[in-house]
From TrEMBL:
Residues 47-67 are annotated as: Disordered. This is Galactose-1-phosphate uridylyltransferase. The lineage of its organism: Bacteria, Bacillati, Actinomycetota, Actinomycetes, Micrococcales. The gene is galT. Residues 63-225 form the Galactose-1-phosphate uridyl transferase N-terminal domain. Belongs to the galactose-1-phosphate uridylyltransferase type 1 family. GO terms for molecular function: UDP-glucose:hexose-1-phosphate uridylyltransferase activity. Residues 239-353 form the Galactose-1-phosphate uridyl transferase C-terminal domain. Pathway: Carbohydrate metabolism; galactose metabolism. It comes from the Bacteria.
Amino acid sequence: MTTARVRRTATTLADGRDLLYFDDTEPYVSGGRTRRLDDPRPLADRYADVPGEDGAPRPFQGPEMRLDPLTGEWVPMASHRMNRTFLPAADSCPLCPARPGAEYSDGEVPDTDYDVVVFENRFPALMQVPGTGLDDGWDVDGSDLWRARPAAGRCEVVCFSADHTSSLGAVGPRRMRTIIEAWADRTRELSALPGIEQVFCFENRGKEIGVTLPHPHGQVYAFPFVAPRTQAMQRQAAAHQAATGRNLHRDILDGERKAGVRVVLESEHWTAYVPAASRWPVEVHLAPHRDVLDLPGLSDAERDDLAVVYLDLLGRLDRFFVGPDGSAIPLPYISGWHQAVVGEGRELGRLHLQVFSVLRAPGKLKYLAGVESGVGAWISDTTPERIAARLQEAAR
């Protein structure tokens, strides 16, 4: 598949996982040359039988999820992730492109270079195993108090750059535009999978966040349920629509733009603002001016504009804090695209990005207090107006 800007090339890794190259440079974008598509690693099929405690082969079982009867929330159980790769050296990072002659030979990308690449996570918290489905539920310990089902979703990794030392904020508008194309592509395809109710594209950045692979990358989760925070936003949006006949997210954007004091930046198609009830020491939302449900719904003009605006925003975030010598401190953050759910209640949603950080001051993290962790009663350490003022100052 080729668009005006990006060429998408699909292949399969040695264990059966999907991998997609998204190219925006020649000779690949025109099809004059193709990235390496074969995976030479001697990996077993990921659904192959596994040895049991007695050594006899047992059918592969994917992760499960259990329903918390106190909250009604699904909790995936993915114990195999305890053994995933943790902070590897640059010459042994599985997200780097292959390097002929290198000691490490178990990287996830077969080619020696790439622009943007997406592949199924090798250690997924959610996984659709052939022959099992969401209807294959059971009772934990034989009690109907605790329901369980296969965690039949999908987890993908999005590598933003082949440069291990780079970051999303350093990729440039052209590459950012390719990443946006990849996010939209994956949202569209994953939303069409059976049983998927929500698609969430996100990035964790920085060791303070708990990142295990420092290579510039993000992830895409396709959930077989609607996540708790999204459920809460759906309830609020439904109540607002019933009371006013309007979309809550639209009204919030209009209200922030009218107030102006918390607006960080505006472009032709996008506005970034610090929400009036923000929780984190640094938090900002980015929303399109047009009502759009999800990333695939963005027009070319909106995607082009987003590629510039997002990089502007990330630059400001990286200048939010400065060290004693006056140098900027790269901000650890979590960013995620809130999109309309796939099924019932889809019309209540509206696309927007949330970026937040746990860093409350140089060298100081926000640790959740007992009331925050225990009962979710949040206490902000600052004010939204102060956050917005600093982000306004951080413009170049």
